[in-house]
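Student:
Attend to each token:
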Amino acid sequence: MQKQRLKQEIGLNLSPQQIQFMNLLQIPLMSLEKRIEDELESNPALEETTQDKEKNEDTESSWESTRNHNQSTEEKYSTVPRERELSLQEFLLQQLPMQSLDDDESVLAQFIIGCLDDNGFLSRSMLAISDDLLFKLNLNISETELILILKIVQKLDPIGVGARDLKECLLLQLENKTQTESIILAQSVLRNQYTAFANKNYEKLLKEFDVDKNQIRQVYKEVEQLNPKPGSSFTNTQEVNAYITADFLLEADNDELNVVLNNSRSKSLRSSQYYKKMLENLEQEKGDKEAIQFLKEKIEGAEWFANALIQREQTLLKTMNCIVSIQEEFFKTGDEKLLQPMKLMDISEKIDLDISTISRVTNSKYIETPYGTFLLKEFFSDAYSKDDGTVISNKVIKSHLQDLLENENKKKPYSDEELSEKIDELGFHIARRTVAKYRDQLGVAVARLRREL
């Protein structure tokens, strides 16, 4: 039997406009440009206007630029269009006519080229390709026949494409070089002791090949000059290269730091005066109600969108200025050791905005500084308290760890335990597993893989 009961709940319901504004806050500059273009296409009451026009007309609902771009600044930050480059597959297909293949062999070669990944590797097995040929093209081709065609594909530029693994890729490139003693030895090492080579087991290599350290050192030197990803320099047909466009620009004038938004648009937005007059005329003449309602919705939507962009700019600048004030020493010098511990909550409390808003503002956004372009999330880090009570960012510890790794004896690199002891001597008491975590975050391999002869 069902029973009725009362239940009290406290909740927060967001209006569609609030949700839209939060989405505007979150998207970076390049996505914002597309969002504005989409809005201009969908809402006829939203229009672009030049800055000169705005000086003489009502600008209450316009999106005013917070930065006046002069010609030199526009040239500095403008994006130069680039011609479309060939993909790896297109480049390889252009070379096939020079290989003297008959029609059937050409079809198989094209099919194999289509199976290559972005790095130029053939990650599929011959059996799987043979099955696909039978299913898609009704061709019954044996694995032996496919390997013969694969050998032809492997002769194409760039050398190394068509390899089924890294070992084969390196061997293909070595076979194409002038066969000196070191090249011949390198091929023998890779064929017979690839695992020992990859793990830098120098002792085993010296014993197996009865050579001296200089010869093994030369083998590593030859292999390091090879390209482990021969197809990576070509444009991906599926993905477009992502270029970072900074959302903020940091300008230093003597000791003053000035943050400006990177507004690439030379025009601002506002609700259309033409549609406003049309609505006014319809209301006076008591025209079609549906037309009046349509115009009202579009004009209100245009005014909201233009004002939302103004509010977005103000929120972004307010947040970024707060970050710069906390990390002022870093932005003046570019020295990571001067970074202060900072969390989203710290910014939230200082500028009186919700922590979720700060998270959206800093999401996927970059700032261009005299010392490089940085992701905003990089400035947030946990705090570490030293013995004397000084509170520092854990990025400072990572910076010291980086220095230790760069200056270590490459013939006898520090283990994680030794790094922990060295860091402890600097006054930072952290466990070995924490050192290992920081080392991984710095992209540095374990000691045995850093060792050199």
About this structure: The first helix runs from residue 16 to 26. Strands lie at 46-49, 248-253, 256-261, 268-271, 366-369, 372-375, 383-385, 391-393.
